Amino acid sequence: MLHQKYYQDYGLAISGLVMHHKVDPLEYNREVDDALPLDGLITPNPELRQLLEAIDTSKVKPWLFTNAHITHGQRVVRLLEIDDLFEGITFCDYRKMPFICKPHREMFEKAEAEAGAMSPQDCYFVGKHR
Question: What does pTM read for this prediction?
Answer without folding.
Answer: 0.88
